[in-house]
Design a protein that fits this description.
With 319 residues, the protein is an all-alpha fold. The chain has a single domain, classed as Orthogonal Bundle (MetI-like fold). It has twelve helices and two strands; from the N terminus they run αββααααααααααα. It has a two-stranded antiparallel sheet with strand order 1-2. Helix 3 (81-113) crosses helix 7 (180-206). The radius of gyration is 28 Å and the shape is globular.
Amino acid sequence: MSSVKQATATGADTRLQSHRHLSDRAIQNIFIWPTLILLIAFNVFPLFYSLYLGFTDYSAIARQAPVWVGFENFRSILNDEQLWEYFATTGRYAVASVGLQTLLGFGLAMLVREKFKGSGVITTLILVPMMISPVVVGLFWKLMYNPTFGYFNYLLGFTNPATAPDWLGSRWGGQAVPGLALWAVVIVDVWMWSPFVMLLVLSGLNAIPEYLYEAAVIDRASSWFQFWRITLPQVAPLLLIAILFRTIEAFKSFDLVMGMTGGGPGTQTELIAVNLYRQAFLGQWRTGRSSALAYIILIIIIAVSNLYIKYLNQMRGEG
């Protein structure tokens, strides 16, 4: 009897565990499937649908079905010299902003790494710009750059508004100095995102073992030798990741530029993302062509990212 009862109890436990297993799987499905459905609805489907529209002649406001044109949109974009000028402007913007962010962020990380009185407060204040919305930052700095009542020219020593530089071409009837507007946007982007580079570099600096520096001191290595042989190689992977992220964001930069200049004056700050928005919405509504342009931008970003990742993998392999 005892063996029968034990077998019955064992069977009951097995069925109970099976029931619990099915219940756990059902709970998992309840959480997973709605997420997958939302992901497909808001990410995967628009991705492939926009790719399809890139091969069509279509306008979102026209009551007509998309007309298949093959690679005509891509051919038209690649042969458009004006668009290549926008790509060149975006490239200059990316190189200038990312380069300055790297130098300034690295310097700030080296400074904040040294513990001193009030270092925590200073670190928090440095991180404030990256926590603000880019549109708000753009509007704020647009007022700062104003040649009549802005503080930026005053801080540079230009006290006479009539002769002060017009960074954004905002003076009535005036024009910005060629190239000055783009540098004005670069300065704001560097001010806003250098703390991001600082955070990644700082995490790398804090992970460097102290015994490496102690061994270098015992060997009477100079400060420059310690920086070049210990600090920089240890931080380089995280620094490269920061450069990768900022380069991708620079190619996609839109909200900051729209908040400051709207792409002007003229086409001085017409980045490719701004022109994409202009073609897709602002009076043109060339949905098919803008979709093709978006994928060309995507291909360029993927190519640049692969170069960074390849170099990062080589660096890790050497390490």
